[in-house]
Amino acid sequence: MRLAYRPEIDGLRTLAVVPVVLFHAGLAPFKGGFVGVDVFFVISGYLITSILLADLSKGSFSLLRFYDRRIRRIIPALVAVVLASFVMAYLWMPTDQLREFAKDVVAVSLFGSNIRYMAGGGYFDAAEQLRPLLHTWSLAIEEQFYVVFPLLLFALWRWWRPHLLTVSVILLAISLAFAEYMSRTDSLLNYYLLPTRAWELLAGSVLAMKGVRPGAVSRWKAEAGSALGVGLILVSVFLLGEEFRYPSLWTVIPVIGAMLVIAFADVRSLAGQMLGSRSFVGIGLLSYSFYLWHQPVFVFARLRFGQDSLSTGDYLALVGLSLALSWVTYLVLERPIRRQRFASPIKIATAALAATVFMIVGARYTVIQGKHWLPLRNPLITQLSERLKPAYGLAEACDGAVDIPDCKTDDQPVIAVWGDSHARHLVDGLKAARPDIRMIQLTKSACTAMLHGAGLKYNSGPDLRVSRECLAFNDRVVEWLSHNESVEFVVIASLMSQFSVDRGMLDAAGNVVPGGPEKAVEELRKTIDWVKRIGKTPVLITSPPINGKDFGDCFYRHEVFGTSLDACGITREEDATFRKSVYGIYSALEPFAKVIRLRDLLCEGETCLTHVGDMTIYRDTTHLSREGSVYLSREFDLYGRITGEETGRRVSGGLNNAAVTN
Question: pTM higher than 0.70 for the full model?
């Protein structure tokens, strides 16, 4: 069933896709550009439900025909983008990142990428912006919805038609309420879950069930309704941001905006005329391919030139490239294949299945074989990838573990290293510098070492699940330390960025309470006092100097692509500014415990080390590489500084003999 064409809906697609693209380009005014996806959901729900209802009313409803249309619409452009991305990733990405990308390809092929990304760091995390297929989570949401919704609609139409709208509104309300609840408890799952997003698609469905027709209302209502709708979308784009809980009741703003545009915009209104103009409709027709292409184009530019090296002008050029690729994709793939005469449904389905199997097999080969070697890859990439792997300490299994054999060097450890990944990255160096060290590793990623609390991870809302895991982990550490008399020194090391501003924290009972630097000082003071009370010496170690740049990535690009190391440096002043509030926490604690500031070791004068010759000290923005950890411990006798037996910096090396980047 073909609906009457409404150009203003294609124009609305432009109002959805452009903010998303400019948000991913990092243009500050478009800080809420991610709401464009919500607009897409409403459009999709409206159009698909309208088509299904038209088929049901004519008695021509067919699941096979429905999925044939979906395949023609979704698969061709998606396969093209995934395959192009795979080629670039294969040639440029570090091995571990390539293997993770290959897993992403499998998830995308099965329309499960939203589930895959639930295990990541959160949609707004900087590290996630180097995933070429991150944006496909929204496609997964739609396709999962359309596995269930047509069957539900058919059942309601056949057996409970008078209540079709009522049931849909109830489901919408339940989904919205669930999203609001999850936004306060588990923001990561909330962002990617179908049950917390379904209400946005149902909002469009409800419009279709109501049979809205812009021409059926007066001109002034059309004018007012469509203008208000566009206004609500623009307000969301420019005023919302990642600091808002999302999706939640805040999401109602762009969703209602999209609903108003669909319900009221037509040629009689200014908003309808704008959205129906040639430029808006033209981009709208390309919006699907445009959406698909922009993220990988941005990611591979960042990978090649560095995230910090791309200017606004560079991103605008990349937007133009994405638009050009989408135009070619639309002309060559989208438009021809969507025409019924191009191929029969069986041929289309067979081709889609073959492409999916091909992508999955290729991706799985990359995941498995990537552990060893991959053909046609620069061997230097493999070597560098190995050097830039995370410093797991004594064993990768130690993350979140307490008192297992692989995570201690002696049954009677003298030093306990407690904290997050910034405690973990010290362990490699301590073990290498002192092979006979008696040490236990008590670390869990993203968990600040703290006696009676946990920092609050924030991904467009609080992530209580992660924080509760930290509470449980720290409780186990406290229990173990309380009953182990051999430990003399407790090294406490954490990034503590969760306390740089007040976004709340969890207390010992798991309740959200005010956080921030002052609260961190209070809780860490309690932790220090407790460590002393059980007869042990607390030693605090800061993170290495940080200014927001990824020094490991910078070193990788220098080695692989020959870029300059000039941009790979950091000064003491940059670090002091970037970490001002966190250093204030350490200063307040210094009267009560020894504080080892890695800045004082790695910086001489105003210049700080990021690499020494062909050795990189960092693996990313904040973490030491394994070789950097070893260098730090050996060069500056970190073990001696912890125990009070330091001999000072070794004479054999140091800033005077090192290649230093300003």
Answer: yes
Looking at residue 282, its amino acid is G
DSSP state, 30? Answer: G
601-638: b (≥16 Cβ within 10 Å) or e: bbbeeebbbbbbeeebbbbbbbbbbbbbbbbbbbbbbb
3-state secondary structure 232-279: HHHHHHHHCCCCCCCCCHHHHHHHHHHHHHHHHCCCCCHHHHHHCCHH
The candidate with the shortest Cα–Cα distance to 24, out of 90, 147, 111, 123, is 123
Instruction: Show Cβ contacts of residue 657 under 8 Å, excluding neighbours closer than 6 positions.
Output: none
Residue of 229, 189, 175, 188 whose CA lies nearest to 39: 229
- What 3-state DSSP class applies to 493? strand
Per-residue pLDDT of 496-514, as tens digits, reads 998 988 888 999 888 889 9
- Digit-coded pLDDT (tens) for 421-465: 999 999 999 999 999 999 999 999 999 999 988 988 777 777 888
pLDDT tens digit sequence for 554-605: 999 999 999 888 888 999 999 999 999 999 999 999 999 999 999 999 999 8
Tokens 């993220």 belong to: 295
Strands 489-493 and 537-541, by their bridges, are parallel
Give 460-489 as a 3 state SS string: CCEEHHHHHHHHHHHHHHHHHHHCCCCCCE
Distance CA 445, CA 623 (A): 12
Q: Which residue has the tokens 């420019």?
A: 238
- Short-list 185, 210, 257, 264, CA closest to 38: 257
Strand 603-604 vs strand 611-612: parallel, antiparallel, or unpaired? Answer: unpaired
Radius of gyration of the chain measured on its C-alpha atoms: 28
* pLDDT tens digits, one per residue of 624-651: 999 999 999 999 999 999 999 876 554 3
| Residue 5 DSSP code | P
Q: Round to whole Å and give the CA distance between 168 and 49.
A: 11
**Spatial distance between the Cα atoms of 631 and 636, rounded to a whole number of angstroms:** 8
Share of the chain above pLDDT 90, in %: 74
Contact in structure between 170 and 233 (CB atoms under 8 Å): no
pLDDT value of residue 655: 37
**Residue 221 token pair:** 């209502």
> Kind of pairing, strands 537-541 and 439-443?
unpaired
Contact by Cβ (8 Å): 613, 606: no
Per-residue pLDDT, averaged over 121-126, amounts to 80
Biggest alpha carbon–alpha carbon distance for the chain: 87
Q: Helix H segments across 396-454?
A: 421-433
Could you give the CA distance from residue 368 to residue 365 in angstroms, rounded to a whole number? 5
Cα 185 to Cα 191, 257, 466, 511, 632: the distances in Å are: 12, 27, 10, 11, 39
361-370 confidence digits (pLDDT tens): 777 767 666 5
Q: What pLDDT, on the 0 to 100 scale, is given for residue 590?
A: 96
Which has more confidence, 357 or 581?
581
